[in-house]
Amino acid sequence: MREEPLVPGVELLESMRSVGYSFNAAVADIVDNSIAAGARHIDVLADTVSGSYVCFFDDGSGMDASGARDALKLAGTRNFVRGETDLGRFGLGLKTASLSQGRRLTVLTKQGGVVTGLQWDLDFVLRTGNWSIRVLEEADIDAAPQSELIRRGDHGTLVIWESLDYLLASAHDVSGWMSSRLSELRNHLGLVFQRFLEGRDALRLSVNGIKVSRIDPFLEDNRRTQVSPVENVTIEGHPVVVEAFTLPHASDLTTSEGKREDLGARMREHQGFYVYRNRRLVSAGGWLGLAKQDELSKQTRVRVDIPPELDHHWQLDIKKSRVEPPQAFRQRFRQIIDQVKIKSTRIHTFRGRQSEPTDFTFLWKVIEDRNGFRYEVNSDHPSVQAVRSALPRGAAGTFENLLADLATCFPAADVYARMAGNQQREVPLLVETAIAARLRALRDGGAIDTEPARMSEALGKIEPFNSVENLRDLVTEVWKEV
Ligand SMILES: Nc1ncnc2c1ncn2[C@@H]1O[C@H](COP(=O)(O)OP(=O)(O)OP(=O)(O)O)[C@@H](O)[C@H]1O
Ligand SMILES: [Mg+2]
Fold it and tell me: In the structure, what pLDDT confidence band is assigned to residue 352 with cuts at 50, 70 and 90?
């Protein structure tokens, strides 16, 4: 037997681009490197006019000439012993993340006042057929976008992405497209690096001059958030720290919290584990295949801190955006899920109790007493009153019996089972003609104020009229009929 080297073709570089990085995940990988290099300031700068570049400038340690070459080598830093502040793992991020968005990656880095400039250019590699990088001369360095940044200070790194074919692949209007990518990016970075963006010596991170603010998925600043005791699960002598949070109900959110998508309509899909490696978020939400994302547990989020020593157990993917929990954790995690879900369910059902007097008229009332709770049709509701007043003599008793039967037979258990089982509830839409018919009944029953403006204001607080968009116009029309 003899051995012979089998060198990969240069096309490998092109294939590597397709590992499925999103723009956000790719940027986060570059930011990881800057944080690992001890940066205190990181600026993401992008050309939003023609989309010609996205670049990243940090004031970290920078690299010397040989360090810069290792950095550009595929898996060049793979066998490092990773410290607690190192967010890297594979020795691939800089190359794969960058080339997943564009065809050219330039690194200008400075250490001890000396600048080194190196470049991977896919077209150059494919053309020459060699695994060769370009070594930039002073004039090339000066010609690179934003290169004046690297001239300042004594150390730091500027990573530049150009020929952004993948990033711009589906952009019709480049400028609009870039602007919205950047605003999504701020949210993503605020969430992923939240724990670096807070505290006294917080990292200063900005995207095109706009500061990235921390986004706390657990709303620890909100008094109504319930926190479970911290739990340490030890594996091979390394602690995994688990902390469960039950988020406040929507009505207890602050105005700015209320605007967040992950706390509004999409709350349900954001429940689950938030897994952090070295305080950097690697997986946000979802129960990692251990439970379903129920409606009733939508308030639950669990923070899991894993140390890098346990990387091999967690099957962290190259993009650092997905993990799989080790077998040893699964059982314990299921128990944790059960405990926290019970808490979340309580918040939910407690809030269902809208029986307290409000200036809003519901069609169904929830009555609570010592024996429990029950639902009744609200006899004060104008629709009920309209029917009552339109009934012929003698039919009143039958109508009251019907109301009582509706209360007795309310299918609460069925509703509970379906909601808990994640079935979507379909609410039939009221068509305009149906609403008009109800309004006519109210008008003819003389149930409420007959002046259209006051009428529509009053109806805005009554189910189901409160959900009708053009209520005022409809009321005016119906009232014109007489
Ligand atoms: N901004 C930077 N400042 C200083 N050194 C850097 C910077 N970016 C990258 N490096 C160096 O380049 C190396 C390679 O980076 P790369 O992202 O490719 O791999 P990694 O961070 O080691 O692992 P991973 O694939 O998990 O990201 C890093 O380990 C680091 O030594
Ligand atoms: Mg990296």
Answer: very low
